[in-house]
Amino acid sequence: MTAQTNTTTTTTTVSAYAAPSAKAPLERTTVPRRPVGESDVLIDIKYAGICHSDIHQARDGWGEGIFPMVPGHEIAGVVTEVGSAVTKFAVGDRVGVGCMVDSCRECENCKAGLEQYCLKGNVPTYNGLGKDGEPTYGGYSTHVVVDEAFTVRIPDGLSLDVAAPLLCAGITTYSPLHRWQAGPGKKVAVVGLGGLGHMAVKIAHAMGAEVTVLSQSLRKKDDGLRLGADHYYATSDEATFEQLAGTFDVILSTVSAPLPLDKYLGLLRSEGAFVNVGAPEEPVSLNLFSVIGGGKTLAGSMIGGIQETQEMLDFCAEHGLGSEIELIDADQINEAYERVLTSDVRYRFVIDTATI
C-alpha cells in the first residue's frame, strides 16, 4: 500500500511483513505509522537488511517479544516529507535508520552521544514501545516515520542496497574498533565471518590494522582474504590456539554462539581486549584468571550513538565499503531466516521493499 500522509491528525497504514506470534512465519500485513510531526521525516524505505537479531527477537530468543512484530533495523530510503521544524533533511535526501528511533535525550549518556546506552532505555526501531506507548514497527515495510534526530544521511558514495546493513552491522563493528583504536601497528582478530564479521574485516583493514579471521573452518578463507584479512585460521584446529597465543591487541567476537572464552582470551597480548558484539542466547562461563593474568579486558559493545553512526557511514563512503549482499524479494524472508541459521548467506540478505 502506498503511504498517504497527513501531517496533522491522520495515522497512515502501510504494507509490511510481520511475525504474528513468536516463532511463526512472517506474513504480509499492514501496520500503522504515526502522522508526520514537526520534527519527523517520512521515509520511503527502499531496502531493509536482515540481521540475525531479527531472528532472535521474532522467535523470542532474547525474551518475550511484542507481537505482531515487524523486524528490521537496517533501513535505507529516501525522505518524502519533512515536518515543519526539520532542519537536517529535505525531501529527496538519502537517509538511514538503525537500531533505535528515540531516547530520553536528557541523561548523561544521551548528552555524551551514547544514546544506545540511554539510562532510561532507548526506543528500539521495532519490538519496543515509543514514548506514546504504541509499539514500534521496523523496516520490513514500505514507509516509516522517524524523528530527524535519529535519522542519518547516507553519503552519495554508497548505494542504498549495500548501505542498509551498515545501519547495524557497520556501526556494531565500527564502534568497538574505533574505541579500541584499531589502526596501524595493531593486530586485530575477527571471530566469525558472517554479516557482522565481514564488515569488521573491511573496516579494520581500512583503519590500517593487521587483520586475522578466526572461523570454525577454512571454508570462507578466500572471501576473508579478498575482504581485507591478512591471515585466516580455523578454530576447529587446536593448533590455532597454540600458534596464536599472545598475538592480538583486540579480538572482536561477532558470533551468536557461546565460545570457550578462556581459550580465546589466551590469544590476547597483555592488556589486550576481547570485545563481544555477538549476543548468544545462552550464558557463558569464564575462569577469571584468564583476564587477571595479563591484565586483559573482557568487554561488550552495542551499536553506536547517532553521531558515531554518521561518522561510520562517512568513513565507509570514503573507503568504498558497502556490505556484501544478496538481494531478495519479501516473499523470501522466511527462507532467508532459515539460511541465516545455517550460515548460508554471503553476507547479508537485503529485502527489496518494493516487493512488499
From TrEMBL:
The keyword Zinc applies. It comes from the Bacteria. Its EC number is 1.1.1.2. InterPro entries: ADH-like_C, ADH-like_N, ADH_Zn_CS, CAD-like, ER, GroES-like_sf, NAD(P)-bd_dom_sf. Residues 1-13 have a biased composition (Low complexity). Its cofactor is Zn(2+). Pfam families: ADH_N (PF08240), ADH_zinc_N (PF00107). It is an enzyme of class 1 (oxidoreductase). Residues 1-32 are annotated as: Disordered. Keywords: Metal-binding, Oxidoreductase, Zinc. It catalyses: a primary alcohol + NADP(+) = an aldehyde + NADPH + H(+). Residues 24-351 form the Enoyl reductase (ER) domain. Belongs to the zinc-containing alcohol dehydrogenase family. This is alcohol dehydrogenase (NADP(+)). It comes from Streptomyces rectiviolaceus. The lineage of its organism: Bacteria, Bacillati, Actinomycetota, Actinomycetes, Kitasatosporales.
